[in-house]
Q: What sequence folds into this?
């Protein structure tokens, strides 16, 4: 599975959009981009995933570049409860394992 | 999203004893289940993958005789830590994925194991 690169930490003001970047320059054509987050001492929570097209759900939006070498997770209106470690993972859908990197620690501040 | 539960949420045991952790998919049939371990301030590390009715596949460096995994039904997998030692103290997390066409894994809330 391809590896990803994320900034170790980011801050965001409450109510503002949080944009979390992820680089995955070695992604293969059949690999998806997944985003999970982990709030302290809890299991990871699924946020969103995509293959080629941009995706949006009730939690977030996922923007994938045309060459698929990078993506951005957007939390449109961050709240204090969005403070967590966010993991960007590349994996082969129903056939792949999720291998976690170090993620980005997002701190939402009042 | 789909719901995965774990039991117990927290367990304390004496060194040398065995501990069983259950992972259940509550509202879907989990063809594949995964077990992860997470040490403090570290990321999740995949330990093993199991398909219903088959033997688990362990990641390199994970002792299969120490971490026994059973996936006997489509909604239940168990992880047994045998002859636990203090260095086995960790946060154990399971995840589950449905059958063909399921792209997403859903995670349980985790089990905190402390070995005295």
A:
């Amino acid at each position: 599975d391809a590896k990803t690169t994320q900034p170790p930490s980011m801050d965001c003001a409450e109510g503002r959009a949080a944009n979390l970047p992820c680089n995955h320059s070695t992604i293969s054509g059949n690999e998806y981009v997944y985003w999970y987050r982990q709030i302290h001492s809890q299991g990871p929570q699924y946020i969103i995933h995509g293959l080629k097209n941009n995706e949006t759900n009730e939690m977030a939006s996922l923007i994938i570049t045309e060459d698929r070498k990078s993506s951005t997770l957007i939390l449109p209106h961050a709240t204090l409860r969005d403070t967590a470690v966010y993991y960007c993972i590349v994996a082969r859908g129903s056939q792949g394992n999720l291998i976690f990197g170090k993620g980005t620690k997002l701190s939402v501040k009042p | 999203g789909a719901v995965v539960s774990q039991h117990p949420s927290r367990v304390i045991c004496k060194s040398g004893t065995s501990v069983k952790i259950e992972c259940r998919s509550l509202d879907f049939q989990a063809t594949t289940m995964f077990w992860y371990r997470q040490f403090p301030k570290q990321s999740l590390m995949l330990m093993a993958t199991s398909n219903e009715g088959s033997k688990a596949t362990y990641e390199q460096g994970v002792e299969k005789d120490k971490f026994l995994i059973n996936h006997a039904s489509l909604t239940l997998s168990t992880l047994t830590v045998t002859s636990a030692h203090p260095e086995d103290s960790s946060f154990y997390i399971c995840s589950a994925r449905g059958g063909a066409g399921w792209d997403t894994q859903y995670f349980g809330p985790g089990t905190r194991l402390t070995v005295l």
